Amino acid sequence: MARVILAGYNVDTTVLDALGRRNPEALAATPETLSAAYARISRDPRPVDELRAAARADVGRARASNQRIVFEFGHHSVAEHAVFNFDLIGVSRLVVEAVEARRLASYTEKSQRYIRLGEDFVVPAEVRDAGRAEAFSAYVGRCFERYGAAARALEAAGRDERLAGEDARYLLPLATTAQLGMTVNARTLEYLVRCLAAHPLAEAREVGRALLAAGSEVAPSLLLFVEPGRSLRGRTQEVAAAARALWPDDPDGRSVRRGVSDVRLLHATPDGDARVLAAVLAGAVGMDGVDALDRVGRLGPEGRTRLFDAATRHLGVHDALPREFEHASLTFEVVLSAAAFGQLKRHRMATLTAGPYDPGLGVTTPPSFSEAGLGALLAEAVRDAEAVWADLGGPTSPVAPYACLNAHRRRVVLTLNLREMYHVSRLREDSHAQWDIRAVASAMSAEARRAFPVCASLLGGKDRVAEFLTAREGPSKPQAGFE
Ligand SMILES: Cc1cc2nc3c(=O)[nH]c(=O)nc-3n(C[C@H](O)[C@H](O)[C@H](O)COP(=O)(O)OP(=O)(O)OC[C@H]3O[C@@H](n4cnc5c(N)ncnc54)[C@H](O)[C@@H]3O)c2cc1C
C-alpha cells in the first residue's frame, strides 16, 4: 500500500527558536538532512524515511554527502528540497527588481498601490561615498512632498483615497523602500546570492551577503557556488565593447519613443494555431506528430475552430489553458513605466530581459493627472529627477536609476508562450488590474489575437471573459472569438 509521510515543512524561525533550534544538540534542525536523504534515493534501496533518519543521526556526514553529490557530481537539483523564507525589509524598489529577477521563487511585496507610503528610502552607499547624501535626501524629500500634494489633489478631484495614492506614486523615485516575503529553495538562493554578488549596486551586494549569511547559518552545505564568475560580472561591458567595435559610428543604435502603451510584437511562432492544435490532436488520439501538423495545417478556420472549441470546452475563467498551448510563443518589445514593470516582472513563466531606466524613453502620465491638473507638478518632478539622474552619472551609471520615478520608462523584451499569455491576460486585463499594466496586457493580447486568430480568441480579463465562457457552453459551433 502506498505510504505518504509528511517529511518536513517550513516553520517560523521564532517558533523553531522556542523549540531550541539553537541548542547545539539540535544540529538536525536543518533542511540539509532532507536534501542528503533524497540525494541517496537513487542509489540506496532503503525506504526514504529510513534515509532521513540516517541523515538526521549524522548531520556532519549528511553535509559532506551534500557537498559531494551536489557539487562534485553536479546532481544539483537535490538542493531544491531545502526551502527558506526570508523577510526583506527596507530594500529599495530598484534592488527589489534585482532580487525578483530570479523566477524560481515566490514573492509577496508591499504594494505601492494599496499602501500610502511614508518617507522611507535608501541613500545608496555610492551616493554617500561621493558626499552627495544630503542633496540626494533633499531630492527624495521633494519627491515625497509632491507625492503627498498629488494624492491630495487627486482626492480633491474625486478619486478615492486608494486610487489617489496608486497614481500619486508615479512621482516617487526608485530609492523608495519596499518590503517583501520571499520563499526560495537552496538552489535558487545560491544563484540569487551569486547574481547579487556580481551586481553593480552596493545595496544589492549587501542584500546578497545578508541572504548568504542567514542561509549559511542553517544550510552551509547547500550554499557553496556563491562567487560570481567573470561571465556574470562582465557581460554588459563585453557586449557594449563588441557593439562599439562592430558599429564604431553608431554603437547605441536608434531609440524609438512612442505612445503610452508601447507594445510591439517582435516574433510569433509561424502558424502557432496549427502547432497548438496539432499537439492537442496528437495528444488526444495518439496521432503521429507530423501527420497531426499536416492535417491541421490543411484545415480552414472553421475546422481549426472546431478543434479549438473541443480543446477548451467547459473552460472556466480560473482554469489554465491546456499545456499544448505552450507550443506557440510570442516575443514582445514593451516600453513601460517602472510602475508597470513592477507588475509585469511578477509573471515568472516567461523570459523577461530589461534595458536600463532611460529618461530618453519619456514618462508614463497617469490619465488622472490631466483631470486633476497635475501636469505641471509632473513636469517639475521629471525635471528634478532627470537633473539628479544626470548628476549621478546618467546613462552609464548603475546608481542613476535610484533617482528615476515610477513614471520613468525602460525597454523590455518579453517572450512567453500562449498559455502564460492567457494567464497574464486573465489577471492583467481584468478590471481589478491597474490601468497601466492593463493597457500593456491589452495591447499584447491584441497582437496575440492577430498572430493566433483561433487559439488566442479567448484572451481577455477574468471579468469580461467569464460571461462569454458561460454563454459559449453548449453544442459545438464555430466561435467568433472574444474581442
Ligand atoms: C490585482 C492584483 C493585485 C496584486 N497585488 C499584489 C500585491 O499587493 N503584492 C504582491 O506581491 N503581488 C501582488 N500581485 C501579484 C500576484 O500576486 C502575482 O505574483 C502575479 O500576478 C503573477 O501571477 P502568478 O503568480 O499567478 O503567476 P506567474 O508567475 O505568471 O506564473 C503562471 C502560473 O504558473 C504557476 N506558478 C508559477 N510559479 C509557481 C510557484 N512557485 N509555485 C506554484 N505555481 C507556480 C501558477 O499556476 C501561476 O498561475 C497582484 C496581482 C494582481 C492581478
Outline the structure in words.
- This protein is α+β, with helices and mostly antiparallel strands.
- The chain has 4 domains: 13-81, no CATH class; 83-112 and 176-253, 2-Layer Sandwich (Alpha-Beta Plaits); 120-175 and 365-406, no CATH class; 258-272 and 299-364 and 407-483, 2-Layer Sandwich (Gyrase A, domain 2), CATH 3.30.1360.
- It has helices spanning 13-18, 32-40, 48-57, 59-72, 93-100, 125-129, 133-156, 161-168, 186-197, 202-218, 230-246, 272-285, 289-297, 301-312, 338-344, 367-371, 375-391, 418-428, 435-451, 462-472, and strands at 83-92, 105-109, 177-185, 262-268, 329-337, 351-354, 409-417.
- Helix 2 crosses helix 3.
- The longest helix has 24 residues, at 133-156.
- Flavin-adenine dinucleotide (FAD) binds at residues 106-109, 111, 114, 346-349, 420, 423, 427, 432-433.
Task: Fill in the keyword field for this structure.
483 residues, alpha+beta, Alpha-Beta Plaits, 4 domains, four-stranded antiparallel sheet, 20 helices, 48% helix, 11% strand, binds flavin-adenine dinucleotide
Quickly count the domains: 4
Give helix % range. Answer: 40-55%
Please name the CATH architecture of the largest domain: 2-Layer Sandwich
Low-confidence parts, pLDDT < 50 over ≥5 residues?
none
Series of secondary-structure elements, N-terminal to C-terminal: HHHHEHEHHHEHHHEHHHEHEHHEHHH
| Total number of strands | 7
Distance between the termini: 51 Å
| Overall shape | globular
Question: What structural class is derived from the secondary structure elements?
Answer: alpha+beta
What percent strand? Answer: 5-15%
Sheet with the most strands, sense and barrel status: 4 strands, antiparallel
Bound molecules: flavin-adenine dinucleotide
Compute the average pLDDT. Answer: 92
- CATH fold node name of the largest domain: Gyrase A, domain 2
Strand order of the largest sheet: 4-5-7-6
Task: Determine and state the CATH class of the largest domain.
Answer: Alpha Beta
Distinct helical segment count: 20
Rg over C-alpha atoms, rounded to the nearest angstrom: 26 Å
